[in-house]
Amino acid sequence: MILIDNILLEEEITETSFSCDLQKCKGACCTFPGKFGAPLKDEEIEMIYNNLDNAKKYLSEKSIEYIDKHGFYEGSRDNYSTVCIDKKDCVFVYYENSVAKYTKEKAYFNCESNFRKPISCHLFPIRVNNTGRKYLYFQNIAECKPALKKGKSDKVNLVNFSKDALIRAYGEESYNEISEYVKNNGIPKAVSSIFGGVNETVS
Questions:
Q1: Residues 6+ apart with CB under 8 A from 86
Q2: Which DSSP helix (H) or strand (E) runs through 12?
Q3: pLDDT tens for residues 123-132?
Q4: CA–CA dist 12, 195 (Å, integer)
């Protein structure tokens, strides 16, 4: 573990090359099988609700009917998440040339919404561990192998790839501190093994 500008993070984040390759992964992070969707902060519920109509225009009738019947989130305070359809697709997923994408982000870039996506989605594959001591870690999953390969080929590290999300979550000054740390330690290395633990030593 390393501590940078009061942010505790797994060193693997600063060592990993990463750049999404949507043509290879097909937006798998939006369609993970499971009971729950993307984690939501409490304040994001109202933000999503206020921009719901603008997002619905890009959704399928099935997704719209599902939202109207079940809502778009579930859980309780400090433990909300988006709803999934058939325990797979996030309820806000739409498909473009067979690639799963997030409808709210499309509305955002079309200047129709002031909410881009949940911060948990924006940061991915960086995750926030909230059990006990809070820290950031890299979730290395099989579906993201193309991103590791592309990141290494294009010489893009995970910190720079996640620039907008890290600034949004922790501010520009903190991002610059993390980015400078990466720069001073050379070109990051690609990680080939599946994430399997956290080094509890803080340096």
A1: none
A2: helix 12-15
A3: 999 999 877 6
A4: 10
Q: State which residues form the domain around 193.
A: 1-18+125-203
Verify that 80 and 106 share a domain, yes or no. Answer: yes
In a domain, 23, yes or no: no
State pTM to two decimals.
0.85
Q: At 145, is the pLDDT very low, low, confident or very high (cuts 50, 70, 90)?
A: very high
Rg (CA), the chain: 17
Token digits for 60?
A: 């399928």
Record the tokens describing residue 187, joined without a space.
Answer: 């070109």
| Contact indicator for 3, 136 with CB cutoff of 8 Å | no
Report the side by side order of strands in the sheet with 2-4.
2-4, 7-9, 135-138, 126-129
Tell me which residue of 192, 184, 187, 179 sits closest to 7, measured CA to CA: 179
Tokens of 10: 């797994």
The candidate with the shortest Cα–Cα distance to 168, out of 102, 100, 125, 117, is 117
Q: Which residue has the tokens 């090359």?
A: 17
Give the residue-averaged pLDDT of 159-164.
Answer: 96
